[in-house]
Design brief:
215 residues; alpha/beta; 5-stranded parallel β-sheet
Length: 215
Amino acid sequence: RIYQARYLSGIVAGMKTETNKIGYVSAMGSENGECTSGIDAFAMGVASVNPEATVEVKVTNSWYDPEGEGQAAQALIDDGCDVIAQHCDTTAPQLAAQEKGVWGCGYNSDMTESAPKAHLTAPIWHWGAYYTSAVKEVIEGTWKPVNYFGGMAEGFIDISPLTANCAEGTQAKIDEVSAKIKDGSFKVFEGEIKDNQGNIVNKAGDVIPDGDITG
């Protein structure tokens, strides 16, 4: 459920932007469920704190393309985006953000060391949480070959520590929403959800299953 962390990073970005234009460098486009759900969750996080902000996406069509990722970030910055988020594996978008004096949300690891003047936070994985759970199940003889949808409650995913670059009040908001995600009182893809054309894609009272979110 990395989308939980992406929602949180959207909150961070939405509270930081001044131009109300946020850029997002995605490895893949609408054909990839993980990327699409990540973009959606991020945009929903942004909208929860800053409904005036928009999210503009550039797709590299590669999981690893430092040059292409940097170029995509630069194009977003040139278009007025002052926060650059990413669903790609290198620090290139964060380095572009720092070079141009804007902000960024990384991915996979805490990218603060690479772009200390720009980085805000990053969705990250704690694989040890899954490995520990899986090995325990193997030992107990209960392991089954099924999809694993671990999230913040299991300690599997999170965001990296917020940096001093974040807007005032961001930590308090993140703490509030994180607690609700962990105790199950808030689900990212629950309730009435509309697409960017105003069409209802999820009805009030319904929760989109994880398999549909990532599929």
